[in-house]
């Protein structure tokens, strides 16, 4: 098969089409047969598998096929001297390989597959008539065949396939390996799932390891009665967790930078101290390519057009943010306050339970509406790519969840100053909510999969009424097709399942940080939950869901800013909690203790913004490697430019011609 031994073929993409009876005389005109032949013509290895009601076309690509399409796509890859150059198949040895030894990452391979299967077009000057179960389909000139079949409903889905060998290896070394606690094979996760998922698990592992310190401190505060010393111990605990959080995120930035360097993610070559990851520009309002191409004729008009595009982009985003904020204040805030007040004044536990059930049902409806409105709004923003749209969506939807999760807790803490009720609410939100969330999160995919299997078997029996006995799914590709996708609860289009996972972490972080002085034991519960979360999330990805579509985001994106915002909020809320703990009589006199708390708050705010200066966001070895690569790139470009200017080398027809001493040119 295309010169590749069968035992080395790894099928990575599946195309789903309906199962049908095909006559020999119509075989050459059948659209599925044409599609399979076109797949083979572009260099793909094809295997066809029949399921209960559908046919599955599995695709694999030899390295040469991937390499040539990568060159056609003008894909940029890192060379051995650290410069990102356009990939050329003939110069394959010049490019750096991945940590697992492969030439292309999973994200790059997936891009190549998408290009191959979507660039199969009708190259004739006239339409081609195809058939499917007696139905004629017009394949227009220049039209993508896969797109036409998707519009006709013949191609049902195209999805990535699990690699069984690597999947089982990750199950043993990662998902089922509970003895290593927070240890994870991050490089193998990156090679199998791509950058974004690997970054999430690296963040979750580091976050859980760092949580050992506040969990231990909080456990000591919970078990030991310090008596009157609590007025000193709790401020010390508050200061320590703020410093812990600030340091953690500074060191996370360093780790993120080190991972990007280890995985050879693209860096812009520059000798300056700043750098940026490709695809993650810090300015999200870059002008579109058409505007840049059309510029240069009239400098004044060009400047006006770019400025107009930039400010319209800012105004659109500001308008959308105002709409979301006003909706939260005018609609969600009164509802949340009404629920918190009723929960406080009601005496019967049964009535409280019923109120909570109604609240949860209504708030789910509110959140879905808010998510849909946010999705519609961001489609009218000038976001450069999907990742920027996803970040904008994260900010807007997190505002809804922030109000939903914290306003009731603020109500008990700020107005009633009822620490007992506050702790009960925190226990309810942290323990019961997270346990139930994990149960639902991991059982729901299995229930969906079981229901789809049941429907497939029932439909098979309806079609073939004389069929008796148990029906088995003989192929793994059909089982993967029935599994749910790794998608976000708000938008499958802009976000993957990591939205829900990061949202769960952010809400947990805000709860334990903002009310740390009221319930120090929360850190211990969260640490245990996160240890279990790592393994259950891994098991979910490897066994319960389809293989996710890879995303190229090299950082945690908007979530980093949300975590930083929660640190600032925690400084304010914990300072208020300490004031109420100190001033239990409510006299509000500026005594030494209260004054010390206010001073401490301002000092912590200064420390929060000052630590970025003391802890560099980039490790020294990464910075040195980047500077070395940038210097080498400049030296090579300078020498080449000097040779070209002096006439010793001329670029002609793709070859470098060096002048001989007699004045003639020698091609190299």
Automatic annotation (TrEMBL):
Keyword match Magnesium: no
Annotated signal sequence range: none
GO MF terms held by the record: chloride channel activity
Subcellular location: Membrane
Keywords: Membrane, Transmembrane, Transmembrane helix
Membrane topology of the entry: Multi-pass membrane protein
Anoctamin transmembrane domain mapped to chain residues: 189-628
Gene Ontology cellular-component terms listed: membrane
UniProt entry tagged with the keyword Ion transport: no
Xref: Pfam families: Anoctamin (PF04547)
Transmembrane segments: 197-220, 232-252, 322-341, 353-371, 392-414, 505-531, 552-582, 594-615
Entry protein name: Anoctamin transmembrane domain-containing protein
Species this chain originates from: Gossypium stocksii
Source species taxonomy: Eukaryota, Viridiplantae, Streptophyta, Embryophyta, Tracheophyta
């Amino acid at each position: 098969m295309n010169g590749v031994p069968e035992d080395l073929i790894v099928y990575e993409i599946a195309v789903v089409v309906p199962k049908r009876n095909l006559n020999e005389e119509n075989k050459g005109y059948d659209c599925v047969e044409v599609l399979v032949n076109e797949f083979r013509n572009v260099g793909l290895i094809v295997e066809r598998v029949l399921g209960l009601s559908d046919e599955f076309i599995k695709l694999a690509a030899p390295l040469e096929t991937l390499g040539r399409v990568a060159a056609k796509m003008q894909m940029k890859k890192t060379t051995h001297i650290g410069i990102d150059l356009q990939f050329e198949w003939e110069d394959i040895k010049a490019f750096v390989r991945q940590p697992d030894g492969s030439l292309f990452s999973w994200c790059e391979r997936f891009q190549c597959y998408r290009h191959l299967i979507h660039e199969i077009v009708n190259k004739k000057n006239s339409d081609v008539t195809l058939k499917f179960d007696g139905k004629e389909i017009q394949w227009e000139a220049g039209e993508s065949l896969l797109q036409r079949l998707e519009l006709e409903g013949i191609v049902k889905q195209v999805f990535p396939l699990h690699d069984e060998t690597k999947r089982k290896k990750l199950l043993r070394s990662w998902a089922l390996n509970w003895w290593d606690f927070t240890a994870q094979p991050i490089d193998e996760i990156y090679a199998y799932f791509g950058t974004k998922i690997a970054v999430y698990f690296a963040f979750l592992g580091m976050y859980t390891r760092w949580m050992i310190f506040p969990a231990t401190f909080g456990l000591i505060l919970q078990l030991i009665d310090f008596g009157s010393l609590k007025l000193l111990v709790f401020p010390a605990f508050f200061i320590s967790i703020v410093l812990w959080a600030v340091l953690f995120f500074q060191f996370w930035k360093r780790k993120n930078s080190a991972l990007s360097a280890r995985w050879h993610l693209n860096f812009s070559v520059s000798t300056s101290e700043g750098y940026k990851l490709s695809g993650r520009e810090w300015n999200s309002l870059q002008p579109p390519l058409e505007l840049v191409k059309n510029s240069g004729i009239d400098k004044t008009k060009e400047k006006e057009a770019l400025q107009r595009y930039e400010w319209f982009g800012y105004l659109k985003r500001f308008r959308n943010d105002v709409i979301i904020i006003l909706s939260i204040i005018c609609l969600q805030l009164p509802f949340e306050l009404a629920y918190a007040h009723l929960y406080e004044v009601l005496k019967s536990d049964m009535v409280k339970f019923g109120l909570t059930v109604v609240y949860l049902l209504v708030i789910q409806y509110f959140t879905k509406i808010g998510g849909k409105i946010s999705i519609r709004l961001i489609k009218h923003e000038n976001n450069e790519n999907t990742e920027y749209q996803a970040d904008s969506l994260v900010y807007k939807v997190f505002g809804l969840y922030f109000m939903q999760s914290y306003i009731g807790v603020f109500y008990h803490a700020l107005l009633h100053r009822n620490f007992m009720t506050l702790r009960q609410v925190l226990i309810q939100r942290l323990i019961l909510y997270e346990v139930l969330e994990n149960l639902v999160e991991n059982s729901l995919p299995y229930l969906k999969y079981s229901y789809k299997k049941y429907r497939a078997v029932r439909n098979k029996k309806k079609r073939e009424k004389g069929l008796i006995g148990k029906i088995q799914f003989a192929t793994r590709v059909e089982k993967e097709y029935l599994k749910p996708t790794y998608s976000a609860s708000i938008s499958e289009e802009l976000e993957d399942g990591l939205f829900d996972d990061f949202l769960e972490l952010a809400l947990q972080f805000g709860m334990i940080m903002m009310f740390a002085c009221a319930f120090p034991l929360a850190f211990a519960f969260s640490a245990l939950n996160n240890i279990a979360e790592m393994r259950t999330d891994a098991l979910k990805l490897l066994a319960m869901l389809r293989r996710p579509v890879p995303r190229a985001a090299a950082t945690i994106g908007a979530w980093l800013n949300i975590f930083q915002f929660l640190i600032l909020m925690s400084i304010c809320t914990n300072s208020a909690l300490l004031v109420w703990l100190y001033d239990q009589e409510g006299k509000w006199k500026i005594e030494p203790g209260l004054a010390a708390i206010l001073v401490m708050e301002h000092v912590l705010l200064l420390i929060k913004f000052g630590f970025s200066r003391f802890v560099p966001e980039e490790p020294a070895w990464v910075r040195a490697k980047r500077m070395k690569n940038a210097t080498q790139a400049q030296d090579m470009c300078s020498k080449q430019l000097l040779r070209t200017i002096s006439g010793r080398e001329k670029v002609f027809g793709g070859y470098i011609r060096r002048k001989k001493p007699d004045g003639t040119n020698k091609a190299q």
